[in-house]
Structure formats: C-alpha cells, structure tokens
Amino acid sequence: MPLTVLIGGARSGKSALALQLVADADEVVFVATAEARDEEMAERIERHRRDRPSEWQVVEEPIALRGAIEAAPPSTVVIVECLSLWVSNLLEAGWADEAVEAEGEKAARAAANRPGATVVVTNEVGLGIVPETPLGRRYRDLLGRVNATFAAAADEAHFVVAGRTLPLHSWA
Fold first, then answer.
1. Backbone phi, psi, residue 166, to 5°
2. Which uninterrupted H or E stretch holds 137?
3. For residue 25, is it within any domain?
4. Is residue 43 part of a domain?
5. Which of 36, 89, 141, 161 reaches 20 to 30 Å from 125, CA-CA?
C-alpha cells in the first residue's frame, strides 16, 4: 500500500477509513492541511484530533505539502488530510493553476516514491451542480485535475460513499 488515495464527498467516511488503514502502523506522520480560520473549522479540526492516536506525529502544513511528505521518515506511514484544503490554500495564496498542477504532480510523485505507505484523503467536488462563480468553477476544475494526478500515481484509489468504498481502476 505505498500510495492509497481516498476520494469522496464531505462526511463520506474517508477520514475514518484512513485511520483504519493505518491502525496497525508503528509510526504515523499525519500531515494536516487545514487551518482554523473560524470557529466551525476549529471545531472540525478538534474532532479530527480527538479521533487520532495521541502518539502520532502531526505536521500542520497548509502550503508545502511535498516538503512535508519528503520530510517524513522513510519507515513511517503518512496520512495527508486533505488535498481539498491544500488546493484551496494554494489558490488563496495566489498560485496560478499551472503552478498548483505542477506542484500536485511533484507531491504525488513524492508520495508514490516513499518506501513507507502514504494515504491521501481528498474530496470529490465535481459531481454536483456547476458552481455559480468563476472562482468556484476554477477550484472545482483544479481540484479535479490534482485528484486525477494523485489517483494516477497511486497503487490504489477508492471512492468513498456513505462509509463504503468502490475501488477505482485505471482504464489504461
């Protein structure tokens, strides 16, 4: 399980599955991309903290995802939670789409090349209505491309719906 991608909607069970997948690991590095910018997000982050074992190393990194992945000791298991917020953070920081995609490719390659397992969590935001705003459409499209990049680099990718998984197979 060198690189596993879990993709699905909000509250679909992705995070719980990620925790289950690494439950037997001796050492885990949890890379958190979220920032508590309001009370609701702070509460979400705190819920996730309570769900994780306290002995896990937590790296809070909203922008330099690839660096956080590369800095993890080779023997550890890495969980990245989540690409959705990472892409949002990069857009908010003023990154161009091409730069986000290029960095996504580098981060996916870094995750796939690790000797230890990496589990990446991300949202699928392209299954619903077309966003009303240009920024919303830009985010949806960009996250979709980053998700596809990670899934293409992954040994396994699963679509998570209502706490259940569907394996995603490459057609190539």
1. -120, 120
2. helix 134-153
3. yes
4. yes
5. 36
- Encode pLDDT of 108-146 as tens digits: 999 999 999 999 999 999 888 899 999 999 999 999 999
The number of folded domains in the chain is 1
Strand pairing class (118-123; 164-167)? unpaired
Of 13, 27, 45, 48, the active-site residue reads 48
Q: Which residues constitute the domain of residue 63?
A: 3-167
Q: Are 107 and 101 in contact (CB under 8 A)?
A: no
Residue 172 lies in a domain: no
pTM: 0.93
Q: Which residues pair with 122 in a beta bridge?
A: 7
One-letter amino acid for residue 114 of the chain: R
Tell me the CATH number at 117. Answer: 3.40.50.300
| pLDDT above 70: residue 1 | no
